[in-house]
Amino acid sequence: MKKVGLTGRIPHDFRRTAIRNLNCAGVPRSDAMAMVGHRTETVYRRYSISDEQSLRESGEKLATLHENELQNETKIVPLHKRAK
Question: How far apart are the first and last CA of the chain?
């Protein structure tokens, strides 16, 4: 790390950054795992850390989904009346 001028960093920092960038780019998890050499889902999740901005954006996406569902809500109309 000293040779390339990155003192104070550890190799795992770069793996974590790579995972975050792959997630943001929408790369499928199985491909991301293969690219960084993670063999198990558990190890991948350990490196996959959400930041505050990512969590905020996810909340906004969820709110948009719910708003769209409310706008597109339709009434259920029976096809025929039940005989009494």
Answer: 81
Name the nearest CA neighbour of 47 among 65, 35, 64: 35
Contacts of 47 (CB under 8 A, 6+ apart): 12, 15, 16, 19, 36, 38
Residue 5 lies in a domain: no
Average pLDDT, the chain: 82
DSSP H stretches of helix in 1-84: 11-24, 29-36, 41-47, 52-71
**Does residue 82 form part of some domain?**
no
> Which percentage of the chain shows pLDDT scores above 90?
11
